[in-house]
Amino acid sequence: MFLFFGVVAEALSHVALKETDGFTKPLASMLVLLGHLAAFVFLGQAMKGMPVGIVHALWAGLAIVTVTALSSVIYRQHLDLSTWIGMGLVAVGVATISLSQGHSH
Prior knowledge:
- This protein has about 100 residues and is mainly alpha-helical.
- The protein has one domain.
- Helix content is about 75%, strand content about 0%.
- The protein contains 4 helices and no strands.
């Protein structure tokens, strides 16, 4: 659950980064900084029960897919087929890691 919250915090923070206008807008800038802080707090909790490499791989992969999906909806960024195929491959990789027997949740 902590890993999920870490991914959500990171993804929202990255999507909000565009709104900071180079960190010239205080509210958006604070959202980005607090989102990153929250992500690391949640990830630290997730690492109590999972190996660092697994947490990082899952976090990075899920954040990539989430940020890409959110930015396509929020900012209406057009993504070509090869990008979505790449996102699918990342998702398959995340699922493979998550379902592996090499770690416990």
